[in-house]
Fold:
Amino acid sequence: MQNITLSVPDVSCEHCVMTVNGALRQQPSVKDIKVDLDSKTVTFQYDPNQVSLDKIEEVLDDAGYTVAK
Ligand SMILES: [Cu+2]
Structure:
């Protein structure tokens, strides 16, 4: 399992937190999702053999939360 923190600057309220959570939860192997409103980051674990980081970033982008690099 890989542990990662991504910056998602568009997260601005509890609703965003729930949307990001919901989008990530549907991805295979993604777990321990923590969206932090203050730092506008999302931290989670995933198995790179089951889902790529590119795919996860694409899912977040589709949900309206582009990952900042
Ligand atoms: Cu919001």
